[in-house]
Amino acid sequence: MTESTEQKTTPPAAIEPPADPIVKQHSITANGAELNYTTTTGLMPIKDDKGEIKATLFYVAYTKDGVDDIGNRPLTIVYNGGPGSSTVWLHMGGVAPKRVEMLADGGMPKPPFKLVDNEYTWLTETDLVFVDPVDTGFSRAVSDEEAEKAKGVEGDIATVGEFIRMYLVRNARWSSPLFLAGESYGTFRSAGLAGYLIDRGMAFNGIILISSILNMQTARFTLGNDLPYQLFLPTYAATAWYHGLVDKNLKKKPVREFLDEVEAWVESDYVQALSLGDRITDKHAAQVADALVKYTGLPLEYVLASNLRINIHQFCKALKRSERRHVGRLDSRFTSWDKDAIDDTAEFDPSMNGIIPPFTSVLNPYFRQDLGYESDVEYHIIRGLKWNWGDAKEGYSDTSDALRSALAKNPYMKVFVASGYYDLATPYYATEYTVSHMNLDPSVRGNFRMEEYPTGHMVYIDFEQLVAMNEHCREFIRDAVAN
User: Fold this and answer.
1) For 364, phi and psi rounded to 5 degrees?
2) What is the DSSP string of 328-389?
3) Phi/psi zone of residue 371: left (φ > 0), alpha (ψ -120 to 50 degrees), beta?
């Protein structure tokens, strides 16, 4: 998630000493066959050039048993985003051999919550290592000073990059086909890591980007930056379509066909209108406003009062205001109510609130009982962190060029991109825009595989889309290794 929930940042707790990892054996049924595997759970020490420990990163590794040549077995490093999020979502949501049981559409089930076997796990194709960045999960720095260094674009990439190097060293996996898989800010991290590590001799076979954001300009609703207004618009439209708030003739169209029409209008009319700023005539503004009403379901008065520019948080509250409901930011299919229907921003995100209790409830006993890892340190699932986005003179933070550089230096690397139509945190159209503006050489444009799903930010919590995305990812890994 690109914006953490609003929580107070607390100083890092004293770190636990990096004792020997806990190793356990397990078995599930996947793809109709028995899958035996080993988990290794522990803390990886992150050291400086003098050999002094600066932080310890918590990780859980899943390795398939019975592999004759472990050096040729694919290995995927997995993490979530935030900044400030642990890796609980991908870990327990649908990538590992166990997953949280949600309702079929991804909604929160009635408690108590359950952990079930995940027969669609990526472990059938690749070993998996889930790692938590500093001050998330059980990961901690040795001091506030070291924590501050790790909580920024460059420091985060360097710290996670060192974890990857250490894991390869300690587990003799340098010859394995290597993959990165990140979600939300984790995609921003992956693009940066690809560029950072290729210069340190580490080349990846593939990068999996789930709900991507590589260029922060695409999501910053700041004065003079019209880009987010045009890039969020198709997801506003998809949301209105889903809730039946568009014209009935538009609602009859399949969502992808409807979005084709919306995207064409954005590229031909909306971008031009925004570029005019205050020079736009009243007649022209009225025409654009009518189209915005048609595609977003918002009242005409609201669109005009917004100067044709609709902010994400205001949209979530305004769309169903007449019903005293607001839609989710992470997944706009979900709605809820709060105490005040007049406010411009919602009291909470119903799509976020629907996942925190189930994931929290199953994660803690899973670590102790299934993985055998015991700790009295609090596992920080998600928290607000003061983040260093870099030097303002360099503009908006952007790792898309690091990904371009990695592809120039390693043209064998493939990139898989998964996006949800109802994701208002990292809109699918913004991802398409970013990839289209990376100035890629024609020789590597075919390295990208783009897939879209009728769900939100966490594609995998919707069971049908979990099955679809995981099959796409496993196929991607097989192809990236074979090719």
Assistant:
1) -60, -50
2) -SS-TT-EE--S-SSSSS-SS-HHHHTTHHHHHHHHHHIIIIIS-----S--BSB-----B-
3) alpha
- Provide the residue ranges of all domains of the chain, joining segments of one domain with +: 22-217+356-482, 223-348
Contact 292, 262 (CB under 8 A): no
Q: Which DSSP letter does residue 172 get?
A: T
pLDDT digits (tens, 9 = 90+) for 384-427: 889 999 877 788 999 999 999 999 999 999 999 999 999 999 99
- Distance separating alpha carbons of residues 79 and 1, to the nearest angstrom: 11
Q: Taking a C-beta distance cutoff of 8 angstroms, is the pair 114, 101 a contact?
A: yes
Q: Are strands 326-327 and 335-336 parallel, antiparallel or unpaired?
A: antiparallel
> Identity (one letter) of the amino acid at 229?
Y
- For residues 64 and 121, the answer to whether their CB atoms sit within 8 Å is no
- Cβ pair 217, 227 in contact under 8 A: yes
Residue 399 to residues 9, 192, 428, Cα–Cα distance (Å): 26, 5, 17
454's CB contacts (< 8 A; 6+ apart) are 255, 420, 421, 422, 465
* Residue 379 burial by Cβ neighbours in a 10 Å radius (0-12, 13-18, 19+): middle
pLDDT in tens, 203-226: 999 999 999 999 999 999 999 999
Is the domain spanning 22-217+356-482 CATH 3.40.50.1820? The answer is: yes
Which token pair is 4? 């953490």
DSSP E strands in 173-280: the ranges are 178-184, 206-212
Q: What angle do CA 425, 430, 436 make, to 5 degrees?
A: 155
Q: What is the DSSP letter of 14?
A: P
Strand, coil or helix: 407: helix
Measured CA to CA, the distance from residue 271 to residue 295 in angstroms comes to 15
Q: Are 388 and 155 in contact (CB under 8 A)?
A: yes
DSSP annotation of 15: P
What burial class does residue 69 get, using C-beta atoms within 10 Å of its C-beta: 0-12 exposed, 13-18 middle, 19+ buried? exposed
Place of tokens 């100067």: 307
Task: Specify the pTM.
Answer: 0.94
Residue 49 carries which side chain, given as an amino acid letter? D
H or E element at residue 39: strand 33-47
